[in-house]
Amino acid sequence: MHGAMFMPIGDAGRAELVEKRLADAITGGHLRAGDRLPSEAELARTMGVAPVTVREALMALRSRGLVITRRGRNGGSFVSDEADPLAFARETLVRSSSLAIRDLGVHYAALTSAGARLAARRAAPSEVAAIRARLSRIEPSGTSSGAPHESGAWRQAMDDLHLELVALSQSARLTRDQMRLQAELSPLLLLIDVDPAVRHRQWKQLDRLLDAVEAGDEDAAGATVESLVSEAINAIDGLRLSLHGS
User: What residues does the HTH gntR-type domain cover (predicted)?
Assistant: First the structure.
């Protein structure tokens, strides 16, 4: 996920697009409070835009309170301490409709299911085992490596594992699309991750998905993805209704 933040914008690159790319990374929890952004020159080079475009985007991010800039030897642009991913995710959810949320779920399920089915056909056992080993280090209770649970850390770890699994499809295009769509859904998933029971079910579902991919069972892999996404979307939409009612 981290690499997706700084992929080239291309000819359509504008300050608004750079601003959105970085804002999505911050509000989605992939860039955290205190994280230092690459320099303006590096951002311009990796995103394929002019330095003045990056400068304009950073000014907009500062005006929104997402980024602060410090001068001096250890200066640069940093994610603001006030940039709370959960608060931004709640605002996004309140502004969303049930139709939009469920349409996002349909898109995500279709894309991830296609990747999982291809992974079941193409992945080597050692590749699946590597993902399973990383999954085993994230306890279903929501703690990782004995440290207290942080919903942002949990979501980032799960996003990375899902992306690694889709990458086993050996389709670069599918993987890139998964990366972009995952960045859109991830902030909303962050809202339901605060429930330990939800994290436990997500962990178990991903474990079952790895079982299906390891067994080469494309149908089971696709069905597991659909079940996983359906449950998450239902929880997100239920939370949306409760926020409207509060």
Answer: 12-82
Architecture of the domain made up of 2-83: Orthogonal Bundle (1.10)
Proportion of the chain above pLDDT 70, given as a percent = 89
Q: Please state, in angstroms and rounded to a whole number, the distance separating the CA atoms of residues 233 and 195.
A: 15
Instruction: Copy the structure tokens of residue 229.
Output: 């996404």
- Which amino acid, one-letter code, is at 38? P
Quick: pLDDT tens for 105-138. Answer: 999 999 999 999 999 999 999 999 999 999 999 8
Fold of 86-245: Four Helix Bundle (Hemerythrin (Met), subunit A) (1.20.120)
DSSP 138: B
**Which are the contacts of 236, defined by CB distance < 8 A and separation ≥ 6?**
93, 101, 188, 189, 191, 192
Q: Could you read off the pLDDT of 174-211 as tens digits, one per residue?
A: 998 998 888 889 889 999 998 888 999 999 999 999 99
Q: Is 79 helix (H, G, I), strand (E, B) or coil?
A: strand
Could you tell me the residue ranges of all domains in the chain? 2-83, 86-245
Instruction: Judge if pTM exceeds 0.90.
Output: no
- Helix residue ranges per DSSP H, the chain: 15-27, 40-47, 51-63, 85-95, 98-122, 125-136, 151-167, 172-192, 196-215, 218-245
